[in-house]
Amino acid sequence: MTGHIDPTKDVFAQFRKMDRPGPVHMLNLVRLRPQAAYPDGRAATGAEAYAAYGSESGPVFERLGGKVVWQGQFELMLIGPQDERWDRVFIAEYPSVSAFVEMIRDPVYREAVKHRQAAVEDSRLVRLKPLKPGKGFGEIPT
After folding, report:
1. From CA 102, how far away is CA 105, in angstroms rounded?
2. Which domains does the chain have, with CATH numbers?
């Protein structure tokens, strides 16, 4: 089974159309390959390749106002497929939809993303609208 690595053109077009004022949070769930799969065959672990992606794309992310607002270490799938595990779990904040789109189109980022593609076995990238926390479960403040 092939993992989910990059967005499709259709979903990315949907993402762009859903423009609204304010920040966008992106929940990242990333499973790394034991060994990176570079097209040129270079040797690296998935963790090393993902670190290279972070190092090279980080300045673009920061220049456009991006920041990591939460991260955690996966421990156990309590509810959900028991074979899922995630090596990197974090929420990245972008000041706007256009900032995220600009990052994806940046030539430095586009070069860096090759490391991500080599590193990642499977991933989920979930767009979220940040809200203030409610007082209890199920309360969605307006």
Report:
1. 5
2. 21-74+85-128 (3.30.70.100)
